[in-house]
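Q: Hi! First time asking for a complex rather than a single chain. Here are the components, and I think there are two in total. Is that enough to go on?
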Amino acid sequence: METSTLDLRSVLYVETVNSNLICCICQTPFIEPVVVETCGHTFCRSCISQVLSTKPTCPVDRSVLSDASSELKSASKIISNMVNELLVYCLNKDLGCTYKGQRQLINLHLKEECKFISLKCLNEECTEIVMKKDLMKHMENCKKAICNKVEDDKVEECSYCNKKYSSSLILLHIEECPNKIVTCLYAEFGCSWVGNQHELKNEHINLCSYGSLKNFFGEYKQRMESLEHENQQLKSSVQELQNKVQSLQDQITEISDCVSSSVIPSLSSYYLNYSNHPNLLNPNKDIVVETTSSGDRRVLPLSPPPPPLSSISQPILTTYELLLSDNDHLKNEVETLNVNLADLELRQNVALMTESSRMQEELQSVKNLCHGLRMQMHYLLTERRGGGNEATTATAPVTRTTGLIRSNNNVNVSIKGNNNNNNNTKATNGHFKSLQKLGSMGTDLPRQEKL
Amino acid sequence: MSMALFTKRLAKELSDLKINPPVGIEIEEAETFKSWKLNLDGVDGTLYAGERFALEFRFSPNYPMESPEVVFVGNIPIHPHIYSNGHICLNVLYNQWSPVLSVRSICLSIQSMLSSCTCKEPPPDNSHYIRTARSSPKLTQWSFHDDSV
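A: Yes, that's all I need. Here is the structure of the assembled complex.
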């Protein structure tokens, strides 16, 4: 990047440079930074190549670099940008140049702008070296030049002061000619003064009322520039957003085209089939419920008559309508089902009630029967054993429904024991059998009774 | 270019040493870029506390690619790695020199070498060495064996 012969190591930096940007060989900010691949250390290209030509190791960590030339890679862009953008003073600062700017632009400044750069007098015979700003003055006085040059060089006349100059000097002269017509330095702020350069420098610039306001104007100019910049950015972002919207719109159009070309034909064929069905002749009715003799219900969806094929020009709308009517059909169906369900529930409840009341009655009768049996048993036992044991047997703990089955077993045993001896038991035999079944069948009690 | 690097770097080091001098190090004389003299103070709390020594640096135009010649002059410290003719046995001055080292870093190395000394005695081969050594320590074949300093 730094192609000129200018040695950037001599420049003076405006601010203290971050120590990470300093080459540890020359101890100045990197010039053409390169990085050593093996260890990652960064140096100026010229510094490290000089070191590597004597000793193939990294100067920082002494790691051995086998193939020194291939080890060096340009450092990342960010590092070279950071060092190239460091602010430096002009090399002619000591001579009076007040320029400050990025390091990468210093060459340009020295070549084009700097008035303090030393130049050799354009006359070959003159050996004096003068600063660019003084060159013109010198050339005017350089007598040799005028006599020599005017003869063999083309002569041009300055349009402002009518003096004659060789063509090689005319441009340099015009720039500085005191008679040159110029506008005020603060013309951009609104000063309308126009006059020759000499007057501007000596008189007007001191009087110009815009001069005292230059800081004010400068500030506003800067602010305006930043606003303009921001505006530009906003414009570009708006443009970007517009493009996005446009592309989205295009996509939507594409999608709706697709839908109209693929979905609508199939839908319209669907409708054509249905319109042939005899039940669908009445378009105002949405649902037809057919109740068959067996009780099941069939619900037939009924759609509005199919749109004429010519109306496909509004494909999306038609699709929506279709969906809406389908939805209505489904709602109606659900309602019908709900009514059916409620009906069934009611019937179920009634059946359950009847059944359970019957069962309760049967249970009651069985209880009574049981009680009778117990009394009989009690009587028989008391009679057989006589007066001595009477008290203990009377207290047999037979109570209520849970005790029922157990007491049945007791009864069973006792009855078997007594079966042969006692004729009176015959009378209760029929009941006993049914009780035995009650004990073994459990919950089937009501049916057994029914049989 | 090499010449330019040499002078610019030394100028930079000099201004840096003047602006921000390390503790116990002082520039005695640095008129040219050929040789400088620096004063080195013994660090408090070490065997050399209160003593002042002078170091002479001689730079070749290849500096910093090549190490400078560094010797003690005048009052020479008694130290197992410093010969009585002022030559210093320190690897970074010879084969371990690197261009990233500087006058400042060498001064600090020598200061630390002095500070870590536990016994003030000359090198064992001192009398032989000073009879045979040439004027520049860089011409000596050094062998470095003591890693403790």
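A: Residues 286-304+315-451 of chain A form one domain. Let me know if you'd like any chain examined more closely.
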